[in-house]
Amino acid sequence: MNIGEKILLLLKEEISEIEYSRYIKHLIYDAKKSTADTAIFYAPNNLVLNWIKNRYASKIKHLFEVHHSLHVNVNITLKNQAENKKIEIKQEQKPQQHSLLNPSHTFENFMVGGSNQFAYATIKSVSEKPGILYNPVFIYGGVGLGKTHLMQAAGNVLQNQGKIVIYTTVEQFLNDFIRHVRNKTMERFQEKYRKCDVLLIDDIQFLSNKEGIQEEFFHTFEALKGIGKQIILTADKHPKKIAGLEKRLQSRFEHGLVADIQPPELETKIAIIENKCKINKVTLTRDIIHYIATVIESNVREIEGILSKLHAYSQLMHVDIDLQFTKNVLKDQLQENRANLTLDIITQNVAKDLNIKPSEIRSKGRSKNLVYARRIAIYLCRELTQNTMPQLAQYFGMQDHTAISHTLKKINELIQNDEDFKVKIEELTNKITSSS
Length: 436
Ligand code: ADP
Ligand code: MG
What we know:
This protein is α/β, with parallel strands linked by helices.
């Protein structure tokens, strides 16, 4: 594997699978023409070229620096016109980085809501007074909820102040450890990790059942903590719940401050999407943003994939991104995410929200409340599952599909004319899809 291919593999670890397979995978490194100052890559078409140029060129440059100490200019050219048309990528001058931090993972780019407020406040305060307030800070929560982003935001702040920041995943730490053991250079390993001012270790759950590395990690941890260096850790669960983790590590992790991140509420998701649109220079209407917010259940990482997918489709098909187009493009995503939603689950959620019994929703009762609840349940069942109108008629004890279609029409009218009702439906959808 040549150096360019290695760099692209490192990049792969940091971006979504969709983006990797749509863009980065098609990039070809020219090992013959590249030099110590210039890395030459070929892109198959303009779309891929521009996307990579705007979003990844500086990152690729950064990876060369961090992993191979090479200060290269990254040249990306179109494959066919490679010979006569070279496009120089202008690099912003960034302060030299010692660690692999994503420069766009900043506090400014992090949207705060009830779900992540505590973790945010904790990390923010630690970035202002490292090593003094809480040490270590342990952030835990599900995939794609912003743990890495937050810890790196602190890393970026401290690094810009000239502190030595090391960011590593447990896996990288382990690989580094093995390599130094093999090369008999353990002192170098220990020196490297114990010399830093701030140590960020991501995905601590992978320490599980790996005794050798837990031992080494313990000593690194103690050494750093002993001299007041800040340590920030993340994992997908609370330290207590990580099986196969030594007791002494577990208690050290809990000693500072443990903060969780929950799945974002609708408002936060909307803010995140708006922010990502701004960063990626994509313009979407409010309707589309709300729609995307309800499609993604919790994993915020999906947002970038969705934006790039919309962007790519609209470019390839020469159409503007409108709501119907968005719905079509995201159809698969929606079905995949909601495959486990059933009519029962939806009905139970609606009943709970409106404070009535699920059986009443499916009864023949005609009181105003019940009719209202039933209509909402039918609408959501139609939107969120693949059931046909006759199937819904049967489930809700209605005569036939025309009764269902009448109900859907009524609800659609309400949604169009009544903003409060529309918000209510959005919130309910969000509640149902994120609880499943
Ligand atoms: P985790 O480490 O928890 O799996 P990441 O930190 O990698 O998640 O976040 C996944 C993506 O979602 C990143 O692109 C990150 O910038 C984005 N993200 C997550 N939460 C937020 C937020 N609150 N505001 C802005 N972006 C967010
Ligand atoms: Mg992460």
